[in-house]
Write a structure and sequence with these properties.
The protein is an alpha/beta fold. Helices cover 39% and strands 21% of the residues. It has 15 helices and 22 strands. Helix 3 (84-100) runs antiparallel to helix 6 (176-188) and helix 5 packs parallel to helix 6 (176-188). It comes from Nakamurella aerolata. InterPro entries: Ald_DH/histidinol_DH, Ald_DH_C, Ald_DH_CS_GLU, Ald_DH_N, Aldehyde_DH_dom, Aldehyde_DH_Superfamily. This is NAD-dependent succinate-semialdehyde dehydrogenase. The active site is at 271.
Length: 498
């Protein structure tokens, strides 16, 4: 497989003028106290389809981070006192504005992150849904009134915003991971400072301007992109005025942030790494299982914490499943995301290519067989072809490490107990996928799988109306659903004597 001649143009399907106008329209500064600040130092944003710079953006330092927190602290009291309906209506206005600009935000995301435009449009719609969902949750924050069991006291509970929050967002879903944190924070009455990933700051900067345009008060949102994450984040997290930390990213970084947050006992929510098993029983509908596998593996070029990382397939159907999956994977078009024909864009950077290559080579040395793909495509940009491996031993590194690329390793099992043991043989517990037509088995296995989410006969579980999050080394807390706003609220109890 190779990148097509048409695909060699990293802007196929999009004019250079369109790209220039879009990039020029995005703020490049830091958002502090409602103003765009450009301190001088900057860093480049790279197009992964070419390996070349798209533009440069302001580079924050520790002082800028604290200045953004100062503004958030100053705005916290008045924002918390804003009527819930008003907060909800502002989020609804942001939803409408983002929905009206799907194509613009999608192209921006594709240019800085690499995913095909069709997928980028899907992410913009997904991101917008968090704004709509939490616009409706803003007016549903409640408490309770009860009689104490002893009868002499009344118990009153209320929920209040936890206070200023700090969000660290990833590069793989640069818009949706922003709205998934910002929307519940704003709905709850919290101000927030955001540090986007250095690879993909443009989506966050454009989103911040959108919030300003719909009337978000100054200081409620700050944005401090930086090339030195630790230098900016550590002083913010150490500041006793900060009350909430939310992070999406690797488990190793998350563990370090949790340790830092312990000093001031911050409320934390962590969406960390995954190692999702994709279990296919002998009675599974293979058409549905293969379709689910394509979604679970190839969504976002495989660069997702929810991506199927290990395919655990019953020995009686493994050969057919592998053949069907190989056929589907080998038929995908690899091209820059701006190409209308693109189904698989570039990985985020050269380090990602190197990691995927190492994992595939390790599996092959351990005895795995490559049925399609298996080598970087080379040339301009960071392209790796869809790859299927069969007979992958459990000792292969890719069965214990996140692949974060378009690689599907397959192994077999014979009994239900063996399948469960293989699926749970990981430190992670974000999501599992399960395919069977036996209802009793589905319930048994779903209860036994050690993960925060289960995809039963489907390859995508993410939904703004559902609680997203994992257990074990995959994190703490939940984002989305009715549970999502609770991450930004504290419960206060008042005992009332009669």
């Amino acid at each position: 497989m190779s990148v097509t001649e048409k695909a060699k143009s990293a802007t196929a399907g999009v004019s250079e003028q369109q790209i220039t106008e879009l990039i020029d329209s995005v703020p490049k500064g830091l958002l502090i106290g409602g103003e765009w600040v450009e301190p001088g130092p900057s860093f480049d944003v790279i197009n992964p389809a070419t390996g070349k710079a798209l533009t440069s953006v302001a580079d924050a330092n520790a002082d800028h981070g604290i200045a953004a927190l100062d503004a958030a602290v100053a705005a916290q009291k008045s924002w918390a006192a804003t009527d819930p309906r008003e907060r909800g209506e502002l989020l609804r206005a942001a939803f409408e504005a983002l929905t009206a600009r799907v194509d613009e935000f999608a192209l921006l995301m594709t240019l800085e992150m690499g995913k095909p435009l069709a997928e980028a449009r899907g992410e913009v719609s997904y991101a917008a849904e968090f704004l709509r969902w939490f616009s409706e949750e803003a007016v549903r924050i409640d408490g309770r009134y009860a009689v104490a069991p002893s009868g002499g006291t009344r118990l009153l509970t209320m929920k209040q915003p936890v206070g200023p929050a700090y969000a660290i967002t990833p590069w793989n879903f640069p818009l949706a991971m922003g709205t998934r944190k910002l929307a519940p924070a704003f709905a709850a009455g919290c101000t927030m400072v955001v540090k986007p990933a250095k690879q993909t700051p443009l989506s966050t900067l454009a989103l911040a301007q959108l919030f300003i345009d719909v009337g978000l008060p100054a200081g409620v949102l700050g944005v401090v992109q930086t090339s030195n994450a630790a230098a900016v984040s550590e002083p913010i997290i150490a500041d006793p005025r900060l009350r909430k930390l939310t992070f999406t990213g690797s488990t190793g970084v998350g563990q370090g942030l949790i340790a830092q947050s312990a000093t001031n006992v911050l409320k934390v929510s962590m969406e960390l790494g995954g190692n999702a098993p994709f279990v296919v029983f002998a009675d599974a509908d293979l058409d549905r299982a293969v379709a689910g596998a394509m979604l679970a593996k190839m969504r976002n070029i495989g660069e997702a914490c929810t991506a199927a990382n290990r395919f655990i397939v019953h020995k009686d159907v493994c050969e057919e499943f592998a053949a069907r999956l190989t056929e589907k994977m080998s038929a995908l078009t690899v091209a820059p995301g701006t190409d209308p024909a693109s189904q698989v864009g570039p990985l985020i950077d050269e380090a990602a290519i190197d990691k995927v290559t190492e994992l595939v080579d390790d599996a092959v040395k351990a005895g795995a067989t490559v049925t399609t793909g298996g080598k970087p495509l080379g040339g301009e940009g960071y392209f790796y072809p869809p790859t299927v491996l069969t007979s992958v031993p459990a000792s292969a590194r890719m069965f214990s490490e996140e692949i974060f690329g378009p690689v599907a390793p397959i192994t077999t099992f014979e009994t239900e107990e063996q399948a469960i043991a293989l699926a749970n043989d990981t430190e992670y517990g974000l999501v599992s996928y399960l395919f069977t037509q036996d209802v009793s088995r589905a319930l048994r296995v779903a209860e036994a799988l050690e993960s925060g989410m289960i995809g039963l006969n489907q390859g995508v579980v993410s939904n703004p109306a559902a609680p997203f999050g994992g257990i074990k080394a995959s994190g703490l807390g939940r984002e989305g659903g009715p549970e999502g706003i609770d991450e930004y609220l504290e419960t206060k109890y008042v005992g009332i004597a009669l």
